Request: fold
Amino acid sequence: MASQPDSVLLDVQNVSRSFAGIRALNLVSFSVKRKKITAVIGPNGAGKSTLINVITGVYIPDSGGIHFGGSDIAGLPAHIVASKGIARTFQLEELFSSMTVIENAMTGCHGKTGSGMLACGFALPSARREEKRIREEAMECLAMVGLEEKALEPISRLPLGERKLVGIARALSMKPGFLMLDEPAGGLAGHEVERLVKLIHRLIEQGLTILLVEHNMPFVMSLSEKIVVLDAGVKIAEGTPEEVKNDERVIKAYLGQEL
Ligand code: ADP
Ligand code: MG
Reply:
């Protein structure tokens, strides 16, 4: 898209996606600026996770355009999208409960290894070197989220807040330029949310661009520069936290909840 300003990293234009007649996304458009925190909020079932899934290539949009760094990524397979520097975390973090913290963090890097299954199976020196490199990179990512001291603990022993941080470390191990967090504050205690807020600020300082997908309004209000509000697959508002907070349609969609 030639008309995109340089500051725009992701541009979503009129994206729709249905599931068996349910319009999970209905002509949704918005853009994400480089090195900023943009939030997508909305009640349960609004289409937030579906949005992440169409951006990452898990689902193909029925129609509409998705441009990343100026190139069209709509409908590309997930591994190609990931190779462009787009990473995500999962709403329900799918970690491997029988593995340690570092082993879980390492699962993010494996898609990028050069050695094939054969080399790994025979423990060839090239595979061992690669394993060492992946371990070191995963350790760096655990350090970024403040969990290096827990690297060797079984993941099952960590509280939810730290398990979510391992999910972020795993996403960071792909060295993304753009990170989407799917309800990272969901289920976290107050002190865990504070830790998450600090981490998100650090990631932005390091040059990352973040799309924060959240149900929790107070959390995004304090963090985001721009907020996009979805309700039943439709964008009902977009603006600064202050603008969105006072928007009639948003208040109605979140009726009875504290904004
Ligand atoms: P949110 O993340 O905002 O809670 P979702 O994107 O998960 O919302 O879901 C939006 C709508 O799309 C819901 O009605 C949901 O049931 C539907 N949906 C999402 N994924 C699928 C799927 N794979 N198959 C069928 N329906 C789906
Ligand atoms: Mg969701």
Remarks:
- The CA atoms of residues 24 and 50 lie 7 Å apart.
- Confidence is low (pLDDT under 50) at residues 112-118.
- The chain has two domains: 1-84+211-259, 86-175.
- Residues 1-84+211-259 form a domain with the Rossmann fold fold (CATH 3.40.50.300).
